[in-house]
Amino acid sequence: MLKLFDMDRNKAIEILEILEKKFPQAHCELNYKTPFELLVATVLSAQCTDVRVNKVASELFKIANTPMQFEQMPIEDLQKYIFSCGFYKNKSQAIKALSHDILVRFDGKVPDNLKDLQTLKGVGRKTANVVYAEAFKGAAIAVDTHVFRVSNRLGLADAKTPEATEDALKAILPEDKWSRAHHLLIFLGRYQCKSQKPDCINCELKDYCRYYKTNL
Q1: Whole-prediction pTM value?
Q2: CB-based burial of residue 132 (10 Å sphere; 0-12 exposed, 13-18 middle, 19+ buried)?
Q3: Model confidence at 10: pLDDT above 70
């Protein structure tokens, strides 16, 4: 499919340039003050809106915002705070696990490299990529539902999983574009190329887009 629409690195960069003009304000919409707060917020954001996470986190971080404080917090209390984010049992267990791991293995500090971030208990690949790219300004592409959807619709990837999509994006985009591409693709998916009703007619990328050429 990719060969059919002739997607290459030059066209991929052109797509990013168009998105940069369209969404110059694209940024991480999770509110945080420290890498650890971002880590917790990212865990909470799974299958939950950033707006909801920010509302919950603003109150939660008044009570606890360090690994030690979350380590000491009864899990039942944590679950009450994060209940409205959904999947609160799994998320509370992940937050407790990563807090303990950071205390025991990293002297209470969030590791600043992708390799160690990915080894934290309760932390998946996407979450590690978000924290590494956003908090530590590393080169990474976090593939959430928006990035997965629009990357495969456009033809930047032809993949069945987030992990394979991440690999495809890394292969077609220059490394210095990875972190910025993450934000731009999220904004495209969040505000135009929506899951159910993508606004294809008014999209500046329709001439590049595999989905548009195939379905419309």
Answers
A1: 0.93
A2: buried
A3: yes
